[in-house]
Amino acid sequence: MSSETDGKGWSKAARGVVVKALLVAGGALLLRRLTKSTTRWDHARFVSHSLSGEKFSKEQAARDPDNYFNIRLLTCPAAEMVDGSRVMYFEQAFWRTPQKPFRQRFLLVKPCPKELKCDVEVSSFAIRDMEEYKNFCDRPKDQRPQPDEVIGDVAEHLTTIYLKRCDRGKRCLYEGSTSPGGFPNSWNGAAYCTSELAILKNHELHFWERGYDEDGQQVWGPKSGPYEFKHAPASSFSDVFSLKFPLPQSMEKSIEGSFVLRE
User: Fold this and answer.
1) How many CA atoms lie within 13 A of 160 on its CB side?
2) Closest by CA position to 180, among listed 197, 163, 161
């Protein structure tokens, strides 16, 4: 018995097969779009973008002046390595004396190795000549050490923080810490130090750095919790440096939500 056909010679069975095939193909395409992978380099770029700019702990210092100072945290892009890793210049100063930073570092931001259960590494390094880099981010580009010089001035490795994307529903976007046992540190009687970092929405940063002696007693750093750094509301500096590592708004929204990592 022959199958029923339409005017163009298509049988009902054949049409059904074609429709099902189109539905399956369309569904697969939609699923790919909905689960579009975010690479580890995307994570590293987002973290670099979030670290950049001028931030203060003003609100926290006003809320708890006995334990926290109003500190200016300033970070900006300084160079890019051949493999795409970002070198950031980082300094901290009391808000009244921004021209006199009490801490200067290079930060190297890159994806975690695949064998580690993290997304982004943020490593801090000493600077060979800190005086040469003082107020680096505040200076015009032609008055700063250039990228080749920056790479040559990266000195000893100090710490590495291993960041993971926060679970959906948490206030943070990324959080992490140094490895168990921290890193060697001799300041103020310490034997080692630990660091914790959380990146929140609106690029708010929570830093908690502490030093411990050989007996495990804390000898420096805040005890109540991390320093909380937020963008200054009227700061134009943040707007200027957000242009250095531009990040599409769509990507920022995707990182704040849920997505799939591509190995």
Assistant:
1) 16
2) 161
